[in-house]
Amino acid sequence: MTKYIIGILIVAFGILMVIKTEWFLRFTGKIAWAEDKLGSEGGTRLFYKLLGIIGIIIAILIMTGHIQTWIFELFN
């Protein structure tokens, strides 16, 4: 039961990161690494969007119980 609650919270936070990227940028500031590696202008925005999407995918895998399969396949 708790994995569903935690999963839903992570999905909600991931969606918030994707939708409200500009707020996160103003709150935390620019990330030099992201600006350098992901684009000259807007690399931090892309980083926050990617982080949100990855969080959503991992949360869904946890809620469905498939995370163990992915981890096993990754390290096998």
Keywords:
flat; 76 residues; mainly alpha
* Approximate shape: flat
Residue-averaged pLDDT: 91
Radius of gyration: 15 Å
H/E order of the elements?
HHHHH
Give the SSE map.
Layout: H1 2-19, H2 21-28, H3 32-38, H4 43-64, H5 67-75
Explain what you see:
By secondary structure, this protein is an all-alpha fold. It has one domain (2-75). The chain is 84% helix and 0% strand. The protein is built from five helices and no strands. α2 (21-28) crosses α4. The two termini are 29 Å apart. The model has no long low-confidence stretch (mean pLDDT 91).
Short account of what is shown:
This protein is mostly helical. It has one domain.
